[in-house]
Amino acid sequence: MLRICRVAYSRAGPSAGGWKPLRFDGGAFHLKGTGELTRALLVLRLCAWPPLVTHGLALQAWSRRLLGCRLSGALLRASIYGQFVAGETVEEVKDCVQQLQHLGLQPLLAVPIEEEPDSAARTGEAWYEGNLNAILRCVDLSRSLVETPGPAGPTLMQLKVTALTSTRLCKELTSWVREPGASVELSPERLAEALDSGKDLQVSCLNAEQNQHLWASLSRLHRVVQDTHERLKRDAEAADRAGLAFGVKLVRGAYLDKERQVARLQRTEDPTQPDYEATSWSYSRCLELMLTHVSRRGPLCHLMVASHNEESVHQATKRAGRLCCV
Predict the structure, then answer these.
(1) Which of 159, 178, 175, 176 is nearest to 217 (CA)?
(2) Contact 12, 324 (CB under 8 A)
């Protein structure tokens, strides 16, 4: 995952005085021991095994019943969990961050909580409030990483809005935005004012219960971002001047099976690409388009490149290098 363009390049070191493009020649492996590399290979093979992918949750449940929670948890931490999670304690996360920074990479902490589309409605606000507490702990962790030695730059953290509000409410608001006059009710200025003031926000297309949930959701979001008041103010002013602030996380190949299944159930057009070549072509075109926007609009346009495809990452880093040197 790369954030263009400050994070797309690794520092060459204090003596080189410049940026070097990312390479895939195995240079990063020297930080990993034999055990970690063996685990990575094992996890890669397991994640490519369809029965495990399909029945992973059921297998995990059976593991707990047969082995007990403690032994099952230990096996999970030593395999899948240990491969994808930075750590369970602050010190473990800091060690992981230092390893990434040693390679010139800037870490991004992600809170893997979200409500699935078309899932059953949650009862009350308790589930979202629990998510808020987890997100705030991650905010505190992100803040503590500022003191971790490494390249200067902002500490990044990612969260899903649907961890704090329901997907159904998001769909209602998305549909309402297309209606005449809705732009005034749901303008960035009005939402930002509700965030800052804490005042109740009433939207005419929503019923009383939905409006109450919207207000609670905005309150939760405010508690997360109020460390970033000046940034929010600056972005709101830029949006007011330009009419639109553009930020994109360009993801390659996410949720393919789920999107196709939803399209079949709803009898709508399949939104995914038909094959690997078409996916590569589409992603490459979108990446070039967004990198061009970044070069033209500067701070008003931000791009995060998310891909496990080596060719796509090469394209992003090579192109971003030219942009950074302009």
Answers:
(1) 159
(2) no
Task: Return the amino acid letter for 81.
Answer: Y
Could you give the CA distance from residue 64 to residue 72 in angstroms, rounded to a whole number?
A: 6
- What's the predicted TM-score (pTM) here? 0.59
Q: In the predicted model, is pLDDT for residue 7 greater than 60?
A: no
Is 263 a domain residue? Answer: yes
Do the domain assignments include residue 252? yes
Q: Is residue 268 part of a domain?
A: yes
Does residue 272 lie in a domain region? yes
How far CA 316 is from CA of 165, 260, 283, 298, in Å, comes to 33, 27, 11, 16
Contact 280, 311 (CB under 8 A): yes
- The single residue listed with the structure tokens 């409410």 is 169
> Pick from 179, 306, 322, 189: which is nearest to 249 by CA?
306
pLDDT-derived band of residue 4, with 50, 70 and 90 as boundaries? very low
Q: How many domains does the chain have?
A: 1
What amino acid occupies position 111?
V
Expressed as residue numbers, the domain containing 252 is: 1-22+245-326
Distances (CA, A) of 174 to 126, 184, 186, 216, 228: 24, 14, 10, 18, 26
